[in-house]
Amino acid sequence: MEAKNKNDLGKDSVGKLIFRLSIPAIAAQIINALYNMVDRAYIGHMPENGDMALTGLGLTFPIIMLISAFSYLIGMGGAPLAAIKMGGGDNKRAEKILGNCFSALIIAAVVLTVVFLIFQRPLLMMFGASENTIGYAMDYLTIYLIGTVFVQISLGMNSFINTQGFAKTGMLTVAIGAVLNIVLDPIFIFGLEMGVKGAALATVISQAVSAVWVLCFLFGKRTILKIRRKNLWIRWREILLPVLALGISPFTMQATESLINIVLNANLQIYGGDSAVGAMTIISSAMQIFMLPLQGLAQGTQPVISFNYGARQMDRVRRAYKIFLITSLVISTSVWLMIMVIPQAFIVIFNNKPELMGITVPAIRIFMAAVFMLGAQTCCQQTFVAVGQAKISLMLAMLRKVVLLIPLVYLFTRAFGFGLWGIYAAEPVADFLASCATVTVFAVFYRKLFRDVPPGNVLISTKEVQEKDSLSKS
């Protein structure tokens, strides 16, 4: 049914396209977040040591995010390139990209599983685990790592479903798994008394079902791009290196989130102990919830921008960008208002102990004080990805977390002596500076990126654009 009513990325109204593709993508993001949200909510309300179990679960976030980052590296690197090729009428090339990405995801899954199973204990201790929380963290992570291959397939390959315009199918990928996880969690955690092990097992089973759903679609008859055996042999220079070059930006965004969690948890353990780490687990969960609409909007807009950029329909590209920008700002500002006014409504979902609430309420207001600016940053950065400008997008992805946030954490805690509250204050300062820089860079390159280009390869570098401008002036 969806194949029959598939969105025409090159002809349908841009606004309606973004709406039709983004709503399922946003729903998919929200449903996908339920994997971890449900685990945290149930674990945080365990009758005995729920707060310590929740803190232990939070310590696994850096590794879980890094696993997801590799699916973004390959999936979100390959999907825009496939869309651009489809826009140019080269579906065979797009299928080669799909096949190579599938093989790369399987290889990544095997390597990640082995490495993290071997080094999980020393890594968790380095991330801020204590003797009170290390047992919970390892119980969860050991089982979760067994399902790494399912994470790679369901997240990475689902990008190729969305980029073809099958937004509803992409949404069902995560909806099926998330609903199953919601059903299985209380059965395993409380009914079978498995605790955090039960939460991990429920997640792995749910992700496995999602992965099977994705593969059935991409091997089936409804898809435009199909996984074919002849395309599975990896072509490093021809295909995979361009995929990795474009995917390095979303990978860096996710991987640096992992790095930030490590830095924050380690410092929080020093200045605030297990309660402060637990508060950050709740804040990170809330931040993840509120970033979901922006991520879903980006996923819904990317195929529209990439396809029309490949088809050289620059009026449609410019129109999509403007809609993307305005909607992103509305979402991020709404999120900011809710956090400032009613933070308790979101904190109580995970834990309601007075000690933890006392730290988390003021901390979340400080931590998310500049979140209203992230709408503009997300829009500009993801548009760079959609048009194939990997280097610029990577630079901007590194700026917010690595260049700004990590040094600010140590500056505020050590040099300025702000202690615990300096850790939380570093985030809004980094968000503000990075957003200003991203908008400025995008304004500089706006006309060059979105000008009407002649027939030929649209994936031109910034240097090539400048050289062409010089020639035209002379």
Main sheet? none
Query: How many strands appear in the DSSP assignment?
Result: 0
Q: Structural class from helices and strands? A: mainly alpha
Distance between the termini: 54 Å
Which geometry do the CA atoms define? globular
Count every helix, treating DSSP H or I runs of 4 or more residues as helices: 17
How much is the radius of gyration in Å? 22 Å
Query: What pattern of helices and strands is seen along the backbone?
Result: HHHHHHHHHHHHHHHHH
Regions with little confidence, pLDDT below 50 for 5+ residues: 1-5, 455-474
Into which percentage range does the β-strand content fall?
Answer: under 5%
Mean pLDDT: 80
Helix content: over 70%
